[in-house]
């Protein structure tokens, strides 16, 4: 099912670039191989900055085609093959969702405020609240396409990340809360002190005495 697969970092970068160029420079889209390589390797609006060769980009494109997320375009009278994404069709998302997914794919984890600013070339969001509403819609899909992360120390806003792939999944707030809950084994293993420790010792002594009495009764029967 779309979104359930784990795309490679190379596939995520290529896919993000295809969406970005379609939405920001439509006159140069679909993209040639050379333009796509340059887009992947550009030093602005990218995190991390990479240095992909032609082979890396073509392999990623072939994999995306196998996933049904991108296509090669052969135009009459043009020798160069061009490439386009079909992410909107595959995931059934609109322009607001595409804009946010593209920026998350190209720049990693970000706050709603950062996403609103960085998607201004793609699509204008009226407020951070509108950004959050779209993100929450993506997060509640099955499978989810984005996740809200726990706030970092000193930060006022939570960050968001895409879940299409590109690296190990970062823990969400629910993951962290679940990890913080002590298990039954952990509770049992904790040292007990004070009055509770005394009661435990008394119970153990009583059990020892009962066992001894039962053993003496068994021998006398």
How would you summarize what this structure contains?
By secondary structure, this protein is mostly helical. 52% of the residues lie in helices and 9% in strands.
Description:
The chain is mostly helical. 52% of the residues lie in helices and 9% in strands. It contains ten helices and six strands, in the order αβααββααβααββααα. The chain has helices at residues 9-24, 33-41, 54-66, 87-91, 95-107, 112-118, 128-139, 173-180, 184-189, 195-220, and strands at residues 31-32, 70-73, 82-85, 110-111, 146-148, 159-162. A three-stranded antiparallel beta sheet has the order 1-3-2. Strands 4-6-5 form a three-stranded antiparallel beta sheet. It is elongated, with a radius of gyration of 28 Å. The model is unreliable at 168-175 and 183-189 (pLDDT under 50).
Q: For the largest beta sheet, what order do the strands appear in spatially?
A: 1-3-2
The amount of helix comes to 40-55%
Report the mean per-residue pLDDT as an integer: 85
Strand content: 5-15%
- End-to-end C-alpha gap: 71 Å
Q: Which features does this protein show?
A:
three-stranded antiparallel beta sheet; 221 residues
How are the SSEs ordered, and which strands pair?
Blueprint: H1 9-24, E1 31-32, H2 33-41, H3 54-66, E2 70-73, E3 82-85, H4 87-91, H5 95-107, E4 110-111, H6 112-118, H7 128-139, E5 146-148, E6 159-162, H8 173-180, H9 184-189, H10 195-220
Antiparallel strand pairs: 1-3, 2-3, 4-6, 5-6
Helix pairs in contact: 1-2, 1-3, 1-5, 6-7
């Amino acid at each position: 099912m779309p979104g359930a697969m784990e795309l490679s970092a190379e596939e995520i970068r290529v896919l993000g670039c295809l969406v970005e160029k379609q939405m920001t420079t439509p006159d140069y889209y679909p993209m040639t191989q050379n333009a796509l390589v340059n887009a992947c390797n550009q030093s602005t609006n990218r995190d991390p900055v990479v240095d992909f060769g032609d082979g890396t980009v073509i392999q990623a494109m072939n994999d995306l085609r196998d996933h049904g997320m991108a296509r090669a375009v052969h135009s009459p009278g043009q020798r160069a093959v061009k490439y386009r994404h079909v992410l909107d069709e595959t995931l059934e998302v609109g322009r607001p969702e595409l804009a946010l997914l593209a920026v998350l794919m190209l720049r990693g984890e970000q706050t709603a405020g950062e996403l609103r600013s960085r998607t201004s070339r793609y699509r204008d969001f009226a407020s951070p609240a509108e950004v959050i509403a779209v993100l929450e819609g993506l997060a509640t899909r099955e499978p989810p396409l984005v996740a809200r992360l726990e706030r970092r120390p000193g930060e006022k806003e939570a960050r968001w990340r895409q879940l299409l792939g590109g690296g190990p999944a970062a823990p969400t707030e629910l993951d962290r809360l679940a990890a913080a809950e002590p298990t039954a084994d952990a509770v049992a293993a904790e040292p007990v002190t004070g009055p509770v420790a005394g009661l435990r010792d008394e119970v153990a002594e009583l059990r020892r005495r009962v066992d001894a009495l039962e053993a003496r009764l068994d021998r006398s029967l």
